[in-house]
From TrEMBL, chain A:
The keyword Transferase does not apply. Keywords: 2Fe-2S, FAD, Flavoprotein, Iron, Iron-sulfur, Metal-binding. It comes from Anaerobium acetethylicum. PROSITE patterns: FAD_FR. Its cofactor is [2Fe-2S] cluster; FAD. GO terms for molecular function: 2 iron, 2 sulfur cluster binding; flavin adenine dinucleotide binding; metal ion binding; oxidoreductase activity. FAD binds at V62, F63, Q64. This is Ferredoxin--NADP+ reductase. Pfam families: DHODB_Fe-S_bind, NAD_binding_1. Gene3D superfamilies: Nucleotide-binding domain of ferredoxin-NADP reductase (FNR) module, Translation factors. Binds 1 [2Fe-2S] cluster per subunit. Residues 1-95 form the FAD-binding FR-type domain.
TrEMBL record, chain B:
It comes from the Bacteria. Residues 17-127 form the Dihydroprymidine dehydrogenase domain. Residues 140-446 form the FAD/NAD(P)-binding domain. PANTHER family: GLUTAMATE SYNTHASE [NADPH] SMALL CHAIN, GLUTAMATE SYNTHASE [NADPH] SMALL CHAIN-RELATED. Gene3D superfamilies: Alpha-helical ferredoxin, FAD/NAD(P)-binding domain. This is Glutamate synthase (NADPH/NADH) small chain. It holds the Pfam family Fer4_20. InterPro entries: DPD_II (IPR028261), FAD/NAD-bd_sf (IPR036188), FAD/NAD-binding_dom (IPR023753), Helical_ferredxn (IPR009051), SudA-like (IPR006004). GO terms for molecular function: iron-sulfur cluster binding; oxidoreductase activity. It comes from Anaerobium acetethylicum.
Length: 296, 460
């Protein structure tokens, strides 16, 4: 059993929890994820590691309620337990293997969408801890859906916040901000890391391809085991089929077949469930975790 | 009674069982078991023992059954096997112990598997539990994976006094026994869990949710004070065909489909994990795994076709499983090979393009080589396809362990007698070494590993 030491609501439908998992905390790196299961009959839910405290032996997760399992998780309080919590899974972000001095010379742009801000955070924090200032764009559907702004401000070089409806900071999609920075503010980037809903990553990748900025995206297909055993998480990258749980979750955004990935995410959504989700998700749609598959 | 024939075993009616997940075979009762046991000739030079990969003293235990001393019979089996209720159910007996039974020359062999199963079930029902060794020797050994090889290795080492911890990646122990083989062949709660509990009762600790190579590496295990490591991580990496359309929604690996159903219990209404219940499903492949996937899909309400490129004679699955599948209504499309999955606009499987095959000259495996018949292409209408083309070892451990030799199929290189690998203090066995094989071979390899580890550590 894995104790929840902290549980708070960051925004409507978005929750943060700290969970005691010393083995995971000891070995995890930015870019990796865990699988959590609540209750004996619970589903195995993959979530990106949002932060970790090696000394306290805790992992921070941030999740959005989109269906039965995440709803169930949201009902847990500090002091409650998860039945299972396994990780770290997947490969760490590639940059942690890079030469720090080389990395310092690079201009890096992070683009976070909605709950995707959570997985971007540990990467930006890692950069900050290694003395690297990076630009960060955080997009949310609306002001109330914006998360981790203060935390991000503390570790980002420049932080650009945007809301789709203009209720806070800039107005417009993250792609608008990228265009503005590159076209109007004379910024250049050597690499872009984009994490958010598939539909957002798709459009960021299309844009950065035009702008010639190599781009890394973090995929979140349906998973079961997370160890390479089931193949549920297969995605097409370039001409190859990859298992996101062991070969990823981060891939070259210019090579990912996003349309296929979006379709595959719908596998367990019945037409009825889809309709319900649309109604329930309503305006949280863009702030999503990437599972909605975007506008259909 | 016809002495040339096995005492028939009671089974759930095919029509009834095709709609539920309860066990197909009901097993013998005491009376039936004693009667069947009397068919054994108690051969001096018992061939059956050589047919059993773990050399159970078959005539000895059967004589005890014939005399009604079931507890004694259980003790004899326990000397060689820690999973008798499992093996009695899933061993390919026809090609092992029963395949060489003298009785089989002029009639049906003794029903060794069903007798072994009876003894194990009886022991469970009568709460016979293994004795825990009096004291441990304080030496820590780590076992990776809680499938049959890991369990067998851990059990043997615990009996010798070692302090054994099994590390399991999934949230439940058992390996393929819990995630792969379905409930209707191998009940989880009663059979698998009891046999795992028996290993725990020997003093073995099982830590679930630990992925070696991710949560902790083998080298770190040594730093944690483990003196030797046994790798029993299985062959869990599924293969796909690489044909167009294979990433469509509704195409699953047998591993995914079976894991959702067995490990995650998706067939039960109170499970949070979804499974796709197709209307017309094709299972591609002809092994045990394909039969299990097909019979699972059938029970979830689908019309099911096994699509296999050779003929019935070459089906690698156990005879009993093929027979059960046919009885239950699985349709066999033999000498048929898929060339493309047909996909609808919204990304779902809508069918499969196949070609008919003919059989040519025998190939390296001795089986006649299937060859495409030109112009025989046809389309099947489907809403799900389950790929059951075999599995290979997961490279997760080998890629994170320096000095661990693997062959070109990513199988860990280990010697047969002691499971010794190229890395000091590291032993391996089961599917991780041989590639996908059988429960009993994995168990045998686990025992060999325990022997190797004991020898290695006693010399230290
Ligand atoms: C590597 C990875 C990292 C992720 N990180 C985060 C994160 O940090 N925060 C966050 O909020 N979400 C994250 N997700 C998504 C999260 O796992 C899903 O939102 C969750 O599984 C939905 O479960 P549910 O039962 O609540 O909803 P459901 O109603 O079951 O599903 C809602 C949507 O999620 C998809 N989905 C269902 N099961 C899974 C599954 N096992 N894996 C992936 N998608 C699934 C469905 O197809 C559907 O589109 C991540 C997913 C992956 C694969
Ligand atoms: C559907 C199906 C049906 C079958 N039917 C039969 C049958 O009827 N008769 C028969 O004899 N055989 C059958 N087999 C084959 C048999 O189950 C296997 O040969 C046997 O289970 C192999 O045992 P093992 O201990 O080597 O590995 P497994 O049973 O595969 O167990 C390996 C365990 O190691 C864990 N693991 C893997 N990597 C790691 C890691 N890095 N860290 C921690 N843990 C890890 C896995 O999660 C798993 O639990 C079947 C197999 C399948 C898939
Ligand atoms: S373990 Fe398997 S091979 Fe050995 S006697 Fe039992 S059924 Fe036969
Ligand atoms: S070979 Fe057959 S008859 Fe002979 S001892 Fe073994 S089981 Fe009995
Ligand atoms: S989640 Fe099963 S192989 Fe990736
Ligand atoms: Mg769900």
């Amino acid at each position: 059993m894995y104790k929840i030491t902290k549980a708070e609501m960051l925004a409507d439908k978005i929750f943060l929890m700290d969970v005691e998992a010393p083995r995971v905390a000891k070995n995890c790196e930015p870019g990796q994820f865990i699988i959590v299961k609540a209750g004996e009959k619970g589903e195995r839910i993959p979530l990106t590691i949002c932060d970790y405290d090696r000394e306290a032996g805790t992992i921070t997760i941030v999740f959005q309620t989109v269906g039965a399992s995440t709803e169930k998780m949201a009902s847990l309080k500090a002091g409650d337990y998860f039945d299972d919590f396994v990780g770290p899974l997947g490969l760490p972000s590639e940059f942690i293997h890079e030469d720090i001095e080389e990395l310092k010379k690079k201009k890096i742009l992070f683009v976070a969408g909605g709950v995707g801000t959570a997985p971007v955070y540990p990467q930006v924090k890692w950069m900050h801890e290694h003395g690297i200032d990076v630009d960060v764009i955080v997009g949310a559907k609306t002001k109330d859906m914006l998360i981790l702004e203060e935390e991000m401000k503390a570790v980002a070089g420049n932080l650009y916040v945007t809301t789709d409806d203009g209720s806070y900071a800039r107005k417009g999609m993250v792609t608008e901000v990228i265009k503005d920075l590159v076209n109007n503010q004379g910024k250049t980037y050597d690499v872009c890391v984009a994490i958010g809903p598939l539909i957002m990553m798709k459009f960021v990748a299309l844009l950065t391809k035009e702008l010639n900025i190599p781009t890394v995206v973090s995929l979140n297909p349906i998973m079961v085991d997370g160890t390479g055993m089931c193949g549920a998480c297969r995605v097409t990258v370039g001409s190859e089929v990859k298992f996101a749980c062991v070969d990823g979750p981060e891939f070259d955004g210019h090579l990912v077949n996003f349309d296929e990935a979006m379709k595959r995410q719908q596998t367990y959504k019945t037409a009825e469930g889809r309709a319900m989700l649309k109604a329930v998700e309503g305006d949280t749609h863009h702030g999503g975790c990437g599972n909605c598959g975007g506008d259909e | 009674m016809d002495i040339l024939k096995k005492v028939p075993v009671r089974e759930q009616d095919a029509k009834v069982r095709a709609k539920n997940f309860e066990e197909v075979c009901l097993g013998y009762n005491l009376e039936e078991a004693m009667e069947e046991a009397k068919r054994c000739l108690n051969c001096k030079n018992a061939k059956c023992i050589k047919g059993c990969p773990v050399s159970i003293d078959i005539p000895a235990f059967i004589q005890e059954v014939a005399a009604g001393n079931i507890e004694e019979a259980a003790k004899i089996i326990a000397e060689s096997s820690c999973l008798p209720a499992v093996c009695g159910r899933v061993c390919p007996q026809e090609s092992q112990c029963e395949g060489v039974c003298i009785r089989g020359i002029k009639g049906e062999p003794v029903s060794i598997g069903k007798l072994e199963r009876f003894v194990a079930d009886w022991s469970r029902e009568h709460n016979i539990v293994p004795e825990k060794p009096e004291k441990t020797n304080g030496i820590k050994v780590a076992v990776i994976g809680s499938g049959p090889s890991g369990l067998a290795c851990a059990g043997d080492l615990a009996k010798k006094g070692y302090e054994v911890t099994i590390f399991e990646a999934l949230h439940e122990a058992g390996g393929v026994l819990v995630y792969g083989i379905p409930e209707f062949r191998l009940p989880k709660e009663t059979v698998v869990k009891t046999e795992i509990d028996n290993v725990i009762k020997l003093g073995v600790k099982i830590e679930t949710n630990v992925i070696i190579g991710k949560s902790i590496t083998i080298d770190e295990l040594f730093e944690e004070g483990f003196k030797a490591v046994f790798i029993g991580s299985g062959a869990g990496l599924p293969k796909f065909m690489g044909i167009p359309g294979e990433n469509a929604n509704g195409v699953f690996s047998a591993n995914e489909y079976l894991t959702r159903n067995n490990l995650m219990k998706a067939f039960e209404t109170d499970s949070d994990t979804p499974i796709y219940r197709g209307k017309k499903v094709a299972v591609v492949g002809g092994g045990n795994v394909a039969m299990d996937a097909a019979r699972t899909a059938l029970r979830l309400g689908a019309e099911v076709h096994i699509v296999y490129r050779r003929s019935q004679d070459e089906l690698p699955a156990r005879v009993e499983e093929v027979h059960h599948a046919i009885q239950e209504g699985v349709i066999f499309d033999l000498l048929t090979n898929p060339v493309e999955i047909l996909v609808s606009e919204d990304g779902w499987v809508k069918g499969m393009k196949c070609v008919k095959m003919g059989l040519g000259e025998p190939d390296a495996s001795g089986r006649r080589r299937p060859m495409e018949i030109p112009g025989s292409e046809f389309e099947m209408e489907l809403d799900a396809v389950i790929m059951s083309l075999g599995t290979s070892p997961n490279p997760l451990i080998s890629s994170t362990t320096e000095g661990l030799e693997v062959n070109k199929w990513k199988c860990i290189v280990a010697d047969e007698e002691f499971g010794k690998t190229s890395k000091e203090g590291v032993f391996a066995g089961g599917d991780a070494v041989t590639g996908a094989a059988t429960v009993i071979l994995a168990m045998g390899a686990g025992r060999a590993g325990a022997k190797g580890i004991d020898e290695y550590l006693s010399k230290k």
